[in-house]
Amino acid sequence: MATIDIVREVLVDNLDLNPDDITAEATMDSLGIDSLDMAELICDIEEKCDIDFGEPEGITTIGGIVEHIDSLK
Predict the structure, then answer these.
(1) pLDDT for position 73
(2) Main-chain phi, psi angles of 70, to 5 degrees
(3) What is the pTM of this model?
(4) Cα separation of 30 and 50, whole Å?
């Protein structure tokens, strides 16, 4: 499964977002993802991908999350 698909699945499951809205260009703000949602998202991604995400400083888009995850694999 592609990383963006994993991120999309977690967001749809946790925040009930429309999967079509979750694109690489989508920002956290445009999707209504706040800091608490981001913390939960990171925990779920760490579990699914078996990684240590670290601090998400400066990441503002879904594409940024995907790039960060891919750099850890």
Answers:
(1) 79
(2) -60, -30
(3) 0.90
(4) 28
